[in-house]
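Fig. S4 source data, part A: sequence.
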Amino acid sequence: MVYDLIIAMNLTAIACFFCIGLFGLLSKVNLIKIIIALELIGKSTTLSFILGGFINGEAGISQAIVFTIIVIEVIVAAMALSLVIINKRVHGTIQVDKLEKRK
């Protein structure tokens, strides 16, 4: 009973992280906020892997996969932020709507 409640609470938190990230990805025009939204979606994925490993009793394997995902997320976030900095220097803005007008 308590075990099912813990799983349901974790699934709710994962779904909330994913929905907040998806909303931020679709509604924001600031490139940095879009990267943060992508990170929230990535964190919901890692939490789902941890929960799946906990449910199946394979916590070690899920933790190894999560460590790999975290390393990949850090690299992607660093590259995306460096592209935002370059974009700011070249175009003078990090707003998506202003970048579309410059085409």
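Fig. S4 source data, part B ends here. The mean pLDDT is 93.
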